[in-house]
Amino acid sequence: MSANTPTHAPLDMREHLKRLEDKGLVVRIDEPINKDTQLHPLVRWQFVGGLPESARRAFLFTNVVGSDGRKYDGQVVVGSLAASPEIYATGMGVPVEEIGNVWNRGIGNPIEPDVVTENPPCQEVVMKGEDLRKPGGGLASLPIPISSPGFDSAPYFTATLCVTKDPENGIRNMGTYRAGLKATDRLGVRMATRLTGAGGYQHWLKYKERGEPMPIAIVLGAAPIIQYTGPQKLAFDSDEMAVAGGLAGAPLRTCKALTVDLEIPADAEIVVEGLIDTEFVEPEGPFGESHGYIALEEFNLSMTVTAITTRKNPILTSIVSQVTPSESSVIKKVAYEPLYLHHLQKVLGVKGVTGVVMHEPLSNLRPIIFLQFANGTVKTEIWRALQGAATLQAQCGKIVIAVSEDIDPHNADAVFWSMAYRSDPMQDILIVPYRARSHGPKTDSTGNSTLMIDATAKSLMPPLALPAKEFMEETKVIWEKLGLPTLSPQPPWHGVHLGDWGDRWERFAQAAVAGEWERNGENSFQRRRPASEVTPETPVRRIEPKD
């Protein structure tokens, strides 16, 4: 680490963007871009256009217009939270490999925030009263993009922190819930139809019982380390602002909202304050959901805006969600995987589990989980891990598959190969009924179940039938010298030993590549057997031990 490398998480979105720019991770777009038809589709190309994960960037739009010809004063940034693990790690202020440790620290050691009482940056500009309701004012004055043009019913806030608090004990919740524009001073907020009844929804139920509207503040563009708590599934009684302080290793700054009794991140770019009705709900949607389908209209919560406060020249943060891979799936993946591994290794004490990979493309992480095990892990430990991963969270682990250490769980083809040759459906598959409905499009089916597969190697196996690594590397140099198309090797791209290999066969292989294959023929000629004793298909190792 150089002397100029920051040793703490960025404390606001502008500091974060500066760090991303210093790393070359921001694309600045100064030409006019239509927020209703062009902005999200342009960023989407880096997820569906075949680019490697390392090539993804944050996009900063400085010249945002609407389909009605309006030019907006504010800027929009997309991809700044988690277009790639490197961008997410920049927001955490740590290398990618330390993300899991930071989460474990933050959850285990929360730090209460410091309250700012004078001139918080998030309230430099204030919009209230008639300014919220006049044509083109209020929410309509913000450059809010349409995420899935051609399907979504309205512009939506996506990168939200929806701050609510329990009316009984005052504990805050900061959830990431989409919020669609209904009027210049009204939003439809999706809390009620979430799988496990989100923390904010639990608060709403309590306010409903009391016959009171629920105060809410929708925060946009807080420090990334605060924003990252929204998608994380923490216990309902966790104070997520304190958890964010634990992630940062220091108290974060909050201030009082202007029109509702809530504390909000003091350095946020935009805050939308208001009250959620507990007497009426209204249809919300359609909108492209993170499970990859369009979520159709459902009755959800209605929010009346009481104030919009911003920094001067605010930057509106939006995220790419919907079909994965996406920014929202990266936010979950880089945090969920180390947390699952920690749970299996440290909480359950499973021996032999070495990795957790949540399948991202199209399936959106949560339904399919791959577990990787060291060779020789006993069957009982494999099944303890399968069950532990399937039950840690109701929304995750509908299908859990165990593989051995030679299988790259990021490569679904390799996992299928392992299932094809290393699992017996009668012995290695278990289906458990009565699972909660998974995150996905609504269907008429009310049931669900869990599928667990042990696709690990049950015994020593012959090598993978590809040329050995040194020969593949040698010819890759030749390939590149010839100017052939750029290669993007996906493992496995060379042969590997899987345990069933003897010294004699190694000598045969070395002799063959040295052009001395006739020596191998002489050896096998000396080991002939009468045809009456064996058949042509009889493996040699059945009648003669390997060396």
Structural notes for this entry:
The protein is α+β, with helices and mostly antiparallel strands. The chain folds into three domains: 13-318, Electron Transport, Fmn-binding Protein, Chain A (Pnp Oxidase, Chain A); 348-454, UbiD C-terminal domain-like (3-Layer(aba) Sandwich), CATH 3.40.1670.10; 469-542, no CATH class. 27% of the residues lie in helices and 21% in strands. Strands 7, 8, 9, 10, 11, 12, 13, 16, 17 and 20 form a ten-stranded antiparallel sheet that branches. A five-stranded mixed sheet has the order 22-23-24-26-25, sandwiched between helices. Strands 1-3-5-21 form a four-stranded mixed sheet, sandwiched between helices. Strand 23 (368-373), helix 10 and strand 24 (399-404) form a beta-alpha-beta unit. The radius of gyration is 28 Å and the shape is elongated. It starts with 12 loop residues before the first helix and ends in a 21-residue tail after the last helix.
Question: Which key terms come to mind for this protein?
Answer:
547 residues; alpha+beta; UbiD C-terminal domain-like; five-stranded mixed β-sheet; 15 helices
Rounded to the nearest angstrom, the radius of gyration is 28 Å
- Indicate the CATH architecture of the largest domain: Roll
Low-confidence stretches: none
- Helices, by number, come to 15
Top-tier CATH class of the largest domain? Mainly Beta
* Through-space gap between termini: 50 Å
Secondary structure: helix percent: 25-40%
Q: Give the class from helix and strand content and strand pairing.
A: alpha+beta
- By DSSP, the count of extended strands is 26
CATH fold-level name of the largest domain: Pnp Oxidase, Chain A
Mean pLDDT: 89
Whole-number tally of structural domains: 3
Largest sheet, described in full? 10 strands, antiparallel
CATH homologous group name of the largest domain? Electron Transport, Fmn-binding Protein, Chain A
Identify the overall geometry: elongated
